[in-house]
Amino acid sequence: AQTVTQSQPEMSVQEAETVTLSCTYDTSESNYYLFWYKQPPSRQMILVIRQEAYKQQNATENRFSVNFQKAAKSFSLKISDSQLGDTAMYFCAFITPGKLIFGQGTTLQVKP
Amino acid sequence: GAVVSQHPSWVICKSGTSVKIECRSLDFQATTMFWYRQFPKQSLMLMATSNEGSKATYEQGVEKDKFLINHASLTLSTLTVTSAHPEDSSFYICSVKTSGEETQYFGPGTRLLVL
User: Fold this and answer.
1) Which pLDDT tens digit goes with each residue over B10-28?
2) Residue A40 CA: distances (Å) to CA of A5, A84, B15, B76
3) Out of B1, B49, B102, closest to residue A95 by CB
């Protein structure tokens, strides 16, 4: 079965500091996509970053970057210079033909 | 990314009535639309996948006669909760993708409360 696991239900970080959210997945596919979505209190799902498995280079979007370890099936998200607006639930997701598989989510609280 | 709207944003209805939720892709040809359900502080649960002009494919355990999905055009899909009951109260979210693209873009969600 294809699964996504986020082992940190809740995390907190001080404003301006760096935090890393963990994600592992399990699949027998060789080519796939991985995503991080954030869901702030408004509950709107927002795409943060995506990674194509065939690309070795880690994706980066401004303050957000990933550490993609294909052999270990690990896909962590690093948020640099955390801002209050980063407070949200973060979901790691894996695309399998036809549908997204989501992890359980990590609630991140950025403290002033 | 795509801009996706949902209407209504929230709805309260009496038990036994039917409720229709619209999902619109405003600037994007949505060849595939997805409907999810989310309970508080939990992950998204996929209910069904619909391709434009085709019947929806429902996930195991989702009653297709209770959750009617129509995807008549590249910009509109509807989810109708028939004979709603309090246990159907939840947050319903749609997402869209286009052919050849794997990224899904999400609507803002609809809060349904059945009394």
Assistant:
1) 999 999 999 999 999 998 8
2) 20, 11, 30, 25
3) B102
